[in-house]
Structure formats: C-alpha cells, structure tokens
From TrEMBL:
UniProt-listed SUPFAM superfamilies: N-terminal domain of adenylylcyclase associated protein, CAP
GO MF term list: actin binding
Domain of life per record: Eukaryota
A Pfam family it matches: CAP_N
Domain (CAP N-terminal) ranges: 1-116
Region (Disordered): 127-168, 186-211
InterPro entries with a match to the protein in the record: Adenylate_cyclase-assoc_CAP, CAP_N, CAP_N_sf
Protein name: Adenylyl cyclase-associated protein 1 isoform a
UniProt biased composition (Pro residues): 140-154
Amino acid composition bias (Low complexity), ranges on this chain: 129-139, 155-166
Amino acid sequence: ACQCQQPVGNKLSELLAPISEQIQEVITFREKNRGSKLFNHLSAVSESIQALGWVAMAPKPGPYVKEMNDAAMFYTNRVLKEYKDVDKKHVDWVKAYLSIWTELQAYIKEFHTTGLAWSKTGPVAKELSGLPSGPSAGSGPPPPPPGPPPPPVPTSSGSDESASRSALFAQINQGESITHALKHVSDDMKTHKNPALKAQSGPVRTWNSRV
C-alpha cells in the first residue's frame, strides 16, 4: 500500500474480495462442524479471522483488531478451562493463536494507526496489480488450517516466535508483500464464489451466536 495510491469507490472492495471469500470459508467451516470436539477452537478462529479485514478499517483499525481478539478469547477461555489440566498442547495453541492478533495490533499502532498508509504519488493499486511479478522480501500470513486439529506444540521458544512475527510485520510494512498479493488478484478470483462481495465497503462481519 505504501507504493500505491488508495483505490477509489468499490475498487478496494474488489481487491479485497479474495480475502473476504476466504474469511467466509472459515466461518462456514465452523458452522459445518458444530459437533466437533474442537468446536471452541474453530469458534475462536471463526470469530476473530475477520481481523484480517483491518486494511479496510479507518480511522481506528487497531481497536477493530482488538475487538476481534476479544471475540476469540470468549472461546479460548473455554479451551483453557477444558484442557489446562489435561493437555498442554491446547494451552500452547491458545497462547500462540492469540499472540497473532496482539502482535498485529502492535504493528498497526506503529505503522498504520489511523488506517492503511497509502502513497500519494504512486500508481493506483488496481494498476499495480497488473505489473510483472518480482521477488518478494517476505510472505503473507498462512491460510487457515483445513482441518479441526490444533497445531502441534511450538518447537521454538516464545521469544523466537515473537521475533519472527515482528520481522514479518516489518517486511509487510515495506509494501512488497502487499504489492505481491495484489499482482495475483484476477477477475476469476473476485467473482467465482460470491459476486455480491464486490459491493462490500469493508470486511465481512458475520457474527454467530455464541454457544
């Protein structure tokens, strides 16, 4: 974004359509697995994954991410209550998952306090999305896991993980990762599942009743 001018009208929603579709898939997956023993884990992810839409939130994206983190904690507290004396892997999973959003809040506070920072002189994001691909300094966050099992116990120390995530956010702020993501947005990706997403002015906000 720091290399591009902000898209006007519905263009930003169009560029974010693939993210919105993936968010909706996570929510749908949770709804289809209400009978799962890991339903609280799935709910924690489902209720907070919408924080990825912070790029469309202004002027306070940080508080928006915190709101999503708080929604996740409603369910992670249940996970802790159920597994804290049974299986430490679930406790470690809760800590690792919630740290994603707390560190994202710190990143936003440092670089994008009032919203995604756009360039005033660069090409508009729509134009840049069609430029040839170049080497990227870092990759974006991984997609949500396809199945319900929680991730294994982290093998590295908490400080190493924190440093790695901080480095990732620093790379994202350079603009290269965001630019790289825009280059792969095609018309087919924007409409193959839900054309109505084009008209959205922000991230999908689907709230499920808490059980």
